[in-house]
UniProtKB/TrEMBL annotation:
The gene is egtD. This is L-histidine N(Alpha)-methyltransferase. It comes from the Bacteria. It is an enzyme of class 2 (transferase). The keyword Transferase applies. GO terms for biological process: methylation. Pfam families: Methyltransf_33. GO terms for molecular function: L-histidine N(alpha)-methyltransferase activity. PANTHER family: ERGOTHIONEINE BIOSYNTHESIS PROTEIN 1. Residues 21-326 form the Histidine-specific methyltransferase SAM-dependent domain. Keywords: Methyltransferase, Transferase. Its EC number is 2.1.1.44.
Length: 328
């Protein structure tokens, strides 16, 4: 196996850069202004997210680590129940939590191939080399690409039983209709007998949630503001990043954390690759991320509406986070 496959290196020039420029043009011309959190994860952004996961306030990583550590043998038994499988890790990042399962599967001598997928090439390169050191003998191949391109690639290149991992509450970034569409899309790439293990952050004390996205050290602020730095770097923007503040707010009825970048003053920003400038009124905001928190009945309804059957819900002792196994 080639240790790394990059689906984003297209022959026809800079498709990704053009997509990014078009996205920025559309989002900053929209009322109200918006940009997608999928563009957070360039090299510096992935490094900042890595730091977020180590913050005392960012509970999801620790909670999910507990769920997986405490239930690793039950989870591995479910995943490895039927012979050889492809283990596809969507949005793998540093795969800190997946590594617990990989070691458990290896100890059980399960026959599988590990395919981590992420839009960050840096993250996938680091993961490939760390896997070689930490889990020698593991059959793996990292894929650099977005969810859609990777699922297409998988369809064309890998046949046989599939187990999809979608950990870390990445599903939370989707609006409710989008998450249904995405789960249906995954379902359409699976056959009966295939499984999905999804990690989802649960509803809890609003203050706990708000603190996780507004940490004292300001790492989350830097992570959000990096989106403007990235536009400056890659699209030739002239954002005065100090002219914006990070502003997160939790809505306890919708169960959603929304993050914004708010312009402290009236300003115009020129972005070369878009060929135009964008006007900001004083205190005008760009919506940059939604992180939905779920209830257990909501999870069950979402799963059933997308054509999966619920197998088992694993939770930590405090009911902070759920990792749920479904089958196709
Ligand atoms: C990687 C999408 C799960 O929404 O909690 C962390 C990203 N944003 N802090 C999340 C994030 C701000 C994270 N996910």
């Amino acid at each position: 196996l080639d240790p790394l496959i990059n689906l984003t290196r297209k022959e026809n020039g800079n498709k990704d850069l053009t997509d990014f420029a078009n996205h920025v043009t559309a989002g900053l011309s929209h009322t109200p202004k918006k940009l997608s959190s999928r563009y957070f994860y360039d090299g510096p952004g992935s490094a900042l997210f890595q730091q977020i996961m180590e913050l005392p306030e960012y509970y999801p990583t620790r909670c999910e680590y507990e769920v997986i550590t405490e239930n690793k043998s039950a989870i591995a038994a479910h995943l490895a129940s039927e012979g050889f499988f492809h283990l596809i890790d969507l949005g793998a990042g540093d795969a800190l939590k997946t590594k617990i399962l990989l070691k458990e599967l290896q100890e059980r001598r399960a026959a599988f191939e590990y395919l981590p997928v992420d839009i960050s090439e840096d993250a996938m390169q680091q993961l490939s080399s760390s896997l070689e050191k930490e889990i020698p003998g593991l059959n793996h191949q990292a894929v650099v690409g977005d969810y859609n391109d990777s699922l297409e690639w998988l369809q064309q290149n890998k046949s046989g039983r599939k187990v999809i991992l979608f950990l870390g509450s990445n599903i939370g970034n989707f609006e409710h209709e989008e998450s249904l569409g995405f789960l249906r899309k995954i379902r359409s790439h699976l056959e009966p007998g295939d499984s999905l293990l999804m990690g989802i952050d649960l509803r809890k004390d609003p203050d706990t949630i708000l603190r996780a996205y507004n940490d004292f050290a300001g790492v989350t602020a830097a992570f959000n503001l990096n989106l403007l730095h990235r536009i400056n770097r890659e699209l030739g923007g002239n954002f005065d990043v100090n002219g914006f503040i990070h502003y997160p707010i939790y809505n306890p009825q919708e169960g959603v954390m929304r993050s914004y970048l708010v312009s402290k003053q009236e300003q115009d920003v020129y972005i070369q690759a878009t060929g135009r400038s964008f006007h900001f009124n004083a205190w005008e905001a760009i919506h940059t991320e939604s992180s939905y928190k779920y209830t257990l009945p909501q999870i069950q309804a979402m799963v059933e509406a997308s054509g999966f059957t619920l197998e088992t819900i694993f939770q930590d002792k405090e009911g902070c986070f759920a990792d749920v196994i479904f089958h196709a």
